[in-house]
Amino acid sequence: MRYVILRDDDTNALTPPEYLETLYRPFLDRDLPVNLAVIPEVRTTVRLPDGRPEGFLMARTGKEPETVPIADAPRLLAYLAANSGYRVVQHGCYHDYHEFGKLDRAEAVRRLEHGAQRLLDAGLGRPGVFVAPYDLFSKEALRATADRYGVVSTCWFHLDGMPRVWWPRYALSVLRKQPHWRTGEAVMLSHPGCLLSYRRPVDTMLDAIKRKVNSQTVTVLVTHWWEFFENGRPNQAFIDVLHRTGDYLAGDKNIRVVSFKDAAEGRVPLS
User: I want to staple 17 with a disulfide (CB 3.0 to 4.6 A). Which of 79, 119, 201, 229 is the partner?
Assistant: First the structure.
């Protein structure tokens, strides 16, 4: 049996719920869980190094305050409440550029706790899963996160970015060619990059997904809702690939689409 966790990043208070509906209705109708990495209090001025606003701010009007908590998005929250197939996980705090890649422990803890409280304030529950913006952690931030969450999902782990006490367990997972591992109570899940991305050719994307899913026990498939709507217009060819991915996952009896919570509670073998 192969297991797939679908992770969509960057839902925030400015996300139009109809975009999520367009993308994920075929998944929801088939009871395939969609893990939304939600920004608890999005910073509306985040820019990339070239000066462009971040893509997840596409619905920004310029009149918003510096930060907007997810509780200030009643339409989005009503939509999520009406669709239990979405599983909310915490995505940073403000989603500053490389946010958790440069924090000391004290500031990491403050942002972890502030972000978790913002999700609670919005009625989304206490998060048990954490996704760092840009998949980046400082050593101090990674340790603080693993102390507080049952699952940490990121693209990669490396020895110089983790406490020395973790090295033996991580080294063993590398020797065994296992992309996922445990430290203490936390499940550490890596992913193979964004296989569902507008930066990849649409004609080979699904084949690449199939190869990866068939090559390991658990695969985390990562995408970003805003990439499907360049300049606010739907990229239909890319959306079609997403929906064909859903057809593939639902139609293969040897594949189960699961949630991060399933992995945290031991219902998913890591190797």
Answer: 79
